[in-house]
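Below is how a single chain appears once it has passed through the pipeline. First comes the sequence as given, then the structure the pipeline wrote out for it. We keep one example in the README because the format questions we get most often are answered faster by looking than by reading.
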Amino acid sequence: MKQSIGAKPLAFPAPAWVIGTYDMFGKPDAATVAWGGITCSSPPCIGISLREATQSYKNIMEKEAFTVNIPSEKYARETDYFGMASGKDEDKFEVSGLTPVKSDNVYAPYIEEFPLILECKLIHSFEIGLHTQFIGEIVDIKADESVLNKGTPDIEKVKPVVFAPETRNYHAIGKVLGKAFSIGREISKK
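Resulting structure:
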């Protein structure tokens, strides 16, 4: 029997991404987001949601660009820190010891130490309620060679951090269950 637990912002897993932006003075900033996902295949787009009160919100609105930095497990502490601290109050890169790098394709920094980077130009923003959703067209992806498998990022090599919103815990990715568009054939009548 299912039990109703009410309407909540809950889906498993949520990403633990770090968004890179520049402020009005060109100072790099980073903020962790969990509300995000792929929104379109062609053009390739990603969506993230931020509160208006955040520095990253202001930076994206002004610069119309951001990076999505996908951290590996070894950077879970830094990922958490980027979500707790405010770019208005401190230099998150200086405190964390991580390295901001100017993106090649958009006016936003990325994090050198993270294995997978999506460079995005803002194409839409939608006020939803407490959050505004930003849709960014992915103009390039940068990946450390060490996480590639035949030229494609391998999730088992990237070892991304994921977030459980209800318990506020970070998790690692688990085991492979089967090949997509393949294991379903076992129950298909066609």
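The chain has a mean pLDDT of 94.

See the next section for the split statistics.
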